[in-house]
Amino acid sequence: MGRVTDLYHQRVASGALRADPAQQAILPQMDRVLDQMAAAPAPRKSAWRAFLGVGSPDPAPVVKGLYLWGGVGRGKSMLMDLMADAAGDIPCRRVHFHEFMQEIQAGLHAARGRGEQDTVRPVAEAVAAQTRLLCFDEMQITDIADAMIVGRLFQVLFDQGVTVVTTSNRVPEDLYKHGLNRQLFLPFITLIRERMEVTCLDSQTDYRQNRQGGPVWFAPADAQARAALDAAWDDLTGGATPTPLTLQVQGRAVTLPAHVGRVARSGFWDLCGRPLGPADYLAVAKAVDVLLIDGVPRLSASNYNEAKRFVTLIDALYEARVRLIASGADQPEQLYNEGEGSFEFERTASRLREMQDAAWGLREGDPQTPIV
């Protein structure tokens, strides 16, 4: 096991990162989590429990996790990556919160099919059997199905000795704000405060805004933008004849109108005008390396559902490092300026800005040649 502080300073020294006092202030808290986990014994099942056939292990040592929140582009995801890298022999999983909850919901569905009375416990115990440290990126809860089970889910995870470190754009008290039946969600906020150290990353710098990218976002979405996307498409596909790409997701067909190899193209309404969700967009992100989207409109309360789907789509593309080329009614920061959902869209606009960088999508060790 390494130390997050050491990894951070190594990357600063190599020029991969620029030292930031607000980020540096978080490092000791991350080191504290890993040091305590390394010193704590792993949960075990006693011989008596095994003899009696009781499934739950002995009470697990409690290592308080970390809830890191703050504005977009401040380096929260980067710090989470460093922590996962530093975990060493500690069984650790680094995953986007959306993706994790999709897996949980699939597990609950399977448990119901087996006739389980308590569907949450076996799913949580299966996670705990493989993982001691869960590193979540972008905890946000907008789905009532997730909101209604997270409290019980995380209580079982914590009781099983799982430590959680997560990033979020919101202070815990603003999670699932104005959501349906929110009073049933409130105990989860209390649980976060009990089991995680809540810390704000108060950097004044949005690193995503400071990165300059190539021409992969075209605004306004006029004939000139259409021609630019046509040219990019021809260049990426070599003029090959496209065909539709249909993905089967949980019994639904998700169709991208045109694809050649792992390059696909779709209109905004094809992807966001239909009742699709995180599982559908994760499937799209796994199926392509480059996605072209035509005609992202201005977003507001009048197309709130479509805007919400677009946010989820961009999250999936971002996590999978899918290259995006798109045309929109305006620059990302100006697409959704007011009304319900505009706060959440700040993160999406920041990610869209970051994804314009020519080297975005490259992972450490990749050849330094952009896809487009």
UniProtKB/TrEMBL annotation:
GO terms for biological process: cell division. It comes from the Bacteria. SUPFAM superfamilies: P-loop containing nucleoside triphosphate hydrolases. Keywords: ATP-binding, Cell cycle, Cell division, Nucleotide-binding. The keyword Metal-binding does not apply. The keyword ATP-binding applies. One of its GO terms (molecular function) is ATP binding. InterPro entries: ATPase_AFG1-like (IPR005654), P-loop_NTPase (IPR027417). One of its GO terms (cellular component) is cytoplasm. This is Cell division protein ZapE. It comes from Paracoccus hibiscisoli.
